[in-house]
Structure formats: structure tokens, C-alpha cells
Amino acid sequence: MPRFRTSLIAFLGLFLAPLPTADAFGPVRSPVQQDAEARLMNEFSRFAALTDGTVGIAVRDLSSGEMLSFNGDTLFPMASTYKVAVAGKILALLDHGQLGLDEQLPRLGRSMPVRALLDMMLTQSDNEATDALVARAGGPAAVDGWVRALGIKGLRVDSNTAQLLARAKVLSGGFGDEAAAEARLSEGERNARDMPNLAFATDPRDTSTPRAMGELLSAIRQGKALKPSSTALMLSIMDRCKTGKMRLRAMLPPGTQIAHKTGTLNGLGNDAGIVTLPDGRMFVISVFVMKDHRGHVIRDRIMAEAARAAYDYFLFAPERRTV
Predict the structure, then answer these.
(1) What are phi and psi of 77, to 5 degrees?
(2) Which domains does the chain have, with CATH numbers?
(3) The whole model's pTM is what?
(4) In sequence order, what E strands does the chain have?
(5) 3-class SS at 201?
(6) What is the rounded distance in angstroms from the CA atom of residue 60 to the CA atom of residue 250?
(7) Cα(163)–Cα(10) distance, rounded to whole angstroms?
(8) Would you say 314 and 283 are in contact if contact means Cβ atoms under 8 Å apart?
(9) pLDDT digit string, tens, across residues 248-300
(10) What is the pLDDT of residues 89-137, one digit of tens each?
């Protein structure tokens, strides 16, 4: 009987104990803030409806840490956005004294310094430069290991660019400089070649969620991945990205600073970057579109619209505070 009474008191205690306060679950959002978030998510949903494919968006305020996403945990082929991770691994080797920026690496039978190859990879999305750097980094597994060591889940690197394109069975304008290849193809040629490979789109290799790509960019920008000098070098190169002019940056106010990296394959378009607001605050944004049959113009518009909506949200939304 005493044992039963003890059990009964303990059971009743579950119901009589005070409920946890709102603070136990983090700051309470004001109705105004909740409305602003709902409006942004509705905008993301509206942009996603422009394609017959799948859209993933993740945005993060680097000051507050606030994260919002639409299909943020869905896996997408990274395409050339994986080159952010390649650059990170190369610069980590530099930070540890295992590599020099003037070290010569082979590209198309000609030696070029690491510094130049980094620039070509991040600004022009040059594939030969990328694969020379992947090899110097120790291969795809070494790049993947660097990402995992940062504690980032949902992003994996399995291939170099040549291997990735072979799996994707891409019919592109060339293996080398993607910026130049885009310029060489006419609109009709791009559209004719721009049909998605659905098997490739569902392959888990060389994929990332929008959230994970955002976490990688956040770790880099906040100095958690590289030394300050390497962080500054990487972002200064990404500031000069020449690809994707109609993507994230297209609808941002003139002069807006954005350090970003694009990715393009058949039926697929990505862009991920760090945007600086007029007051100096920054936010990270990743927009991925896959399995799309409607063409690169629609995909580019989705990315541009999402970036502008996020820009306005972070610039004008109310302060994050408890109520």
C-alpha cells in the first residue's frame, strides 16, 4: 500500500507541477514579428510555384542567428556551389602551413599558382581549376572531412567536377570556364540542353540541404572555419563572382555587397551567398532549384525574388525581442 501511495503521488505530480514558462522554449515572438515571418514564407511559397520542380530556400541573420527556411532540409545536388567547400579546405591547408598561395598546380598542362586557381574557381566557376584544387586538397573525401569537422550535417562531397558531370550526363558548353560557356550558348541552345536528369537529382552524392549550405557560409563568415586573413581572401574573391548575374544579386538594390557562388546543371540552378545590408548587418541565403523543366530564366527569377524578399525582411522586420 505505501508503495502504491508513493506512485500515485508521483503520477499526480506530473499534472500538478507548474508548466514551463515561455522562456524555457526561447524568446516569444511578437504578433508583428510572426506576421512578418508568415509573409516571407508566403512569398517563398509563391516563388516556388513558378517552377514545376522543387525549390529550397534557407536564410539566416548573422547577427541574431534567426533562421527561416522553405524545404530547408531537402537534399539538392550542389553542382558548382560545392566549390565553396573546396576553397575552404584549400585555405584551411594554408592556415596550417601545408600549402602556399604561390604553389604551382597543373591546369590543362600548364602550371598556375593556387591563388589564381582559387580566383578562377570562385569567380568563373572554372572546372579544371577546381579539379586541380580538389586533387591538391587530398581528394573529395578530404574536402568532405573538412566540412564534417565543422559540425555541418546535410552536406556531402563525393566527387571532383569531372566525376560529378559524368554522373549527371551533362550536355554543356564545355568543361572549363562555366561563365564563358554560358556566354557561348545561345538562348535556344541553352533551352534545348536544359532538361533535368531526374535520377541524378535524387542521387544522395554531392548534395546539400539549403540549411547546411547556409551553415557552411555562416561558419566561414563568422570566423569559425578559417583564420581571419583566409576568411577575408575567400570572401573578397566571392564578392567578384561573374556567374549568375540574374540570380541572387539581380533584384538587390544597386551597390549591394554580395559574396556568392552559383551552381548550374541541366534542370538545376543554385546560388548561395552572404548579403550585406545598408546598416552593415549581414544575412546568408541559399536558394536551390531542381527537377525544373521550365528553363533557366524561371530558375534565375526564383533566386532573385527570394533574395529581394529576404533583403526587405531583414532590413525592415521588427526587432527580435520577448513579449
Answers:
(1) -60, 135
(2) 25-316 (3.40.710.10)
(3) 0.86
(4) 54-61, 67-70, 76-77, 104-107, 110-113, 207-208, 258-265, 268-276, 282-290
(5) helix
(6) 20
(7) 61
(8) yes
(9) 999 999 999 999 999 999 999 999 999 999 999 999 999 999 999 999 999 99
(10) 999 999 999 999 999 999 999 999 999 999 999 999 999 999 999 999 9
